[in-house]
Amino acid sequence: MKLNRKTKLDSEIPTASMPDIIFMLLIFFMVTTVLREYSGLPISLPKAKRIEKLKSKRHTSHIWVSKEGLVSIEDKLYSSDGVRHVMYEKRISNPQLVVSLKADEKSKMGLISNIHTELRKADALKLNYSSKTAVD
Amino acid sequence: MAKRRFKGGEIPTSSMADIAFLLLIFFLVTTTIDMDKGLGMVLPAEGEEIEINKKNILNCLINSSGKVLLGGEPVDISNLSKAVRQKIAANDKLIISVKAHSASRYEDYVKVIDQLKEANATRISIAESD
User: Measured between alpha carbons, how far is B129 from A110 in angstroms, rounded to an integer?
Assistant: First the structure.
């Protein structure tokens, strides 16, 4: 017996709205793409094995230390005594602050030690020594 | 004068999806989600000094040429984690006090901290360098 199908199923995926969907995705990626926030200082980071990832960018603040001894926070140069005030303000506005110390591998420990003291005074205690992954 | 016939004034939209796809792929490729990574450390709060039994302190000194002295004996940086692990096994209350000379390099300091983390040392104290 031959069965006659009464209605023909329209089996095509509607493509008319595809450009709109893709444009939405495109706009999402365009908005979320951050080309670069701060340029920082030219440094080469030290290498380490036991590396932890920093959870969120929102709670991270960078301190750049170059091998010449320059200290930069958000593209402004500071003396090592000025770090305290900036970090104190940041710590007040964000209690979950993690400081990422981007210091050159050839910078001197005297300066790093000063920054440690400044951070302790500013009560910004969570510190992260930014480093590259070491290859064995 | 004969009126010119108007031939379809529509913009072709069939290739729009392809153009949008190309742009999308470009942004997907150029987007870099670079995670910040490094060695974590929690500094002690200001004025938080506790007296510790001298037996439980292991001094780790770094000099200006990057040589390490662990508890009075010179140790090669690459062997530091082994030495520290042994000392922790003997005394689990051990606090390692890292003191770097002010002229020593940050690179050596990071190496030492990394080695201490490798040895699963959780009690690390940073002494101020002079």
Answer: 6
